[in-house]
Structure formats: C-alpha cells, structure tokens
C-alpha cells in the first residue's frame, strides 16, 4: 500500500473536517449521540452496558459512575480499624520508640538510623503485644511495643492462624 501526501486546501477554501491531521470526523448526522455531552469527540467504538451484573447503563467501557470501584477502598486504615488517628498513632510510636530505645521487643535488634535506611523499608513498626482480637488495649502504652519487620511478619502470621482456628471452632 502506498502512502499519499495530502496537500493543504487552496487559499479561501476551509480545511475539511475529519482530515487525517484534523482528528476524528464529525458525526454524520450532525450531532453526537444522546449519551455523549455536546462537543465531545466521537468514540472509537460503540458504548457497552456497565460490567456490573444487572446494570443497564451505557458506558464507553467498564463500569458506570455508580459502580466504579473506589480508589484505595481496600487500604489498611488504622483510624477506621482502631479508632486512632494517624497523628495519634505517630505520637504513640515516638513514645514507644523512646521507651524501648529503638529496639525490637522480640529479638532486640536496633532500628536503623534514617541515614542508613533512606527509604524507611527497615524501620521498626508499632505492634499490639496482646492482639486486639484477644482483648489487648488499642492505645495503652503497656500493650504497644516496637517490633522489627521480620518479627512483625512472623508474629502477625501466627496471630492470623490463631484467629482463624478460633473462628472455625465457633
């Protein structure tokens, strides 16, 4: 197939709508379909039904506004989970870090300095020593400890297994 170069229109003639350089062609009936706002470019494919079962709304793709998933909906939110704001949580972590001298309460490893860990990947975390689901207090400094990432992962895994066994028994 050969490509042809288009020459500009003669002086005084308007540029035809929908040229290869001008973008999409206008709708042949003169106005966009009812589901498009006025002045919107023509879609490259016809609208489809919303992907949500039972919804009949026409959308360009995916789901309608009513059924679109909320961004970060699954994010772990301590404020919602424990009733503790992020500012309060940071204050608690500062106090526990000072009390525990920056050491993990399980293995004793020291928290790396910020200069040695610029990404914060190895910073110790604040942990509920007695899990909340077993009756541990949420904001009690006596139930909070500084824990390294490795110990926290192992402890959380064991707690989750314990909680799952308890759920199955009940």
Automatic annotation (TrEMBL):
Transmembrane spans: none
InterPro entries given in the database record: HNH, HNH_nuc
MF (Gene Ontology): endonuclease activity; nucleic acid binding; zinc ion binding
Residue stretches of biased makeup (Pro residues): 29-46
Pfam family, one: HNH
Domain HNH: 104-157
Keywords recorded for this protein, A-Z: Endonuclease, Hydrolase, Nuclease
Residues covered by region (Disordered): 1-51
Protein name per the record: Phage endonuclease
């Amino acid at each position: 197939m050969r490509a042809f170069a288009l020459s500009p229109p003669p002086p005084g003639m308007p540029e035809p709508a929908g040229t290869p350089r001008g973008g999409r062609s206008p709708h042949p009936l003169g106005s966009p379909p009812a589901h498009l706002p006025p002045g919107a470019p023509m879609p490259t494919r016809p609208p489809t039904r919303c992907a949500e079962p039972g919804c009949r709304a026409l959308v360009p793709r995916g789901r309608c506004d009513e059924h679109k998933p909320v961004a970060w909906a699954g994010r772990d939110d301590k404020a919602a989970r424990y009733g503790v704001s992020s500012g309060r949580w940071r204050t608690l972590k500062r106090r526990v870090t000072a009390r525990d001298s920056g050491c993990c309460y399980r293995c004793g490893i020291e928290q790396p300095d910020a200069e040695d860990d610029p990404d914060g990947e190895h910073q110790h975390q604040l942990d509920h020593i007695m899990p909340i689901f077993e009756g541990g207090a949420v904001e009690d400094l006596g139930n909070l400890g500084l824990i390294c990432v490795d110990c926290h992962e192992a402890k959380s895994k064991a707690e989750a297994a314990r909680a799952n066994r308890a759920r199955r028994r009940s």
